[in-house]
Amino acid sequence: MTGRVDRSPVASPCTRICTLDADDLCIGCGRTLDEIGAWSTMPDAVKRTTLATARRRLAESRVQPSRGISASSISVARL
After folding, report:
1. Which are the contacts of 62, defined by CB distance < 8 A and separation ≥ 6?
2. Alpha-carbon distance 37 to 33, whole Å?
3. pTM beyond 0.85
4. Band of pLDDT at residue 62, cut at 50, 70 and 90
5. How far is CA 24 from the centre of its chain?
6. 4 CB contacts (<8 Å, ≥6 apart)?
7. Residue 13 in contact with residue 30, Cβ under 8 Å?
8. Per-residue b/e over 40-60, b at no fewer than 16 CB within 10 Å?
9. Integer CA distances (angstroms), 40 to 4, 13, 29, 36, 37, in order
10. Beta strands in 1-79 (DSSP E)
11. Distance (Å, rounded) from C-alpha 59 to C-alpha 54?
């Protein structure tokens, strides 16, 4: 439905893979350290925005189409 505001609580996207890549993003959930630290105090509307941004980051970083390899696995190898 358009115009409907989701008021349900937003669960943490943490996947318990708490490892930062070369860009300081969590390879498990796609959040920055600041976002992870602030999560418990964020209003749900901000959590939803953060979650959408984190999902986009993960989608953009996971597969390199020309090589078919995971960008996050390359970053992890450098850690």
Report:
1. 70, 71, 72
2. 6
3. no
4. confident
5. 11
6. none
7. yes
8. eeeeeeebeebbeebeebbee
9. 24, 12, 15, 8, 7
10. 63-64, 69-70
11. 9
